[in-house]
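Throughout our pipeline, every protein is held as a single compact record rather than as scattered files. Nothing more is needed to write down the fold, since each code stands for a local backbone conformation. The record that follows is passed on verbatim for readers who wish to inspect the format.
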Amino acid sequence: MELSESVQKGLQYLADPVHFDLKTFTAFTEVAFQSLISSRSECGLDDPQLKDIDQTILKHCHIATTTFILESVKQNADKSAISSCLEDSFDTDRIDVFYSSYQHHKRTLENLLESIGRSPPHITDVLWRLDYCIKNSHVHKVNQPSYLISLHVENDDSGGPPKEVNFNCTMEQLQDLVGKMKDAAKSLEKATQS
């Protein structure tokens, strides 16, 4: 599992006994898992056991830990994969504490990730209107057509009502958009045939 430098640095802070002894590490790990699972907007970093830790370090560790947790769940990591990622920074006790929480919350996190959805939004309808601008707000002659485009977009996974994407463009911009859409359609057709 590849981790960014920022995530690795946050995990190193978390492994440092100066910042987190085993008791605060255990509390922090549970807070990190609960912040991913909980529907509350607060992440739980105001836990009394974490009050003595510098807030900047605490937030950095929280981001790094939740990133690592989600990446581990996404890749269906087992104990050996997690241990190999954490063994450079964590001692055996901390790895065991982390893995125990991971096992306890893994199924819930898998369900959470599955509920996010996989398909991108798709356009279901297009409305357009041609405006002709004669003068601008500075009373300069413009004499240029302008297209107001409204794309109705749906996402199969969300099940919510369609959304609208509205934008304004010139004739050249509209021609460029149409050309790019035709190129994308051809590329998609070629990809499905091979």
